[in-house]
Amino acid sequence: MRITKLLFAAVLAGTAFGAQAAAQDPIEARKAVFKEYKKVFGEQMGAVIKGKQPYDKAAFAKLASDMDALAKKPWEHFPAGSDKGKTNSRAEIWTKPAEFKKAIDQHQAETAKLVQVAQTGDLAQIKPQFGAVQKTCKSCHDQFKKED
To answer: What is the pTM of this model?
Structure first.
């Protein structure tokens, strides 16, 4: 039993170390968050908006809440100096921080509105708000992301 506990503790420590190491690389950390963006917003919510998946009010409202939570995460992973290396981030993120902050604030405001609209369950109101969030994503990409 004691060996099992020690082995379990070692596995936990290794997992924690791996997560900590990944968290120390801001480029990889923000890429991971944006990958989740693509999954939740682009794939799951987008499929409903495009009519490729059936609309489930509760499930969509949950996705909107998940998206709102995600909208708060990637920005901490843009510290000074993280424009070096394998990144598609433009220098304007760091040279024009007020503009970057304004884009973030607008995006977060629109995702918060999406949560509110999704709670109504009215897909006719949800679609334009989904578009408003999508517009903030595109605007930020246009200003602050290099071409892939």
So the answer is: 0.81
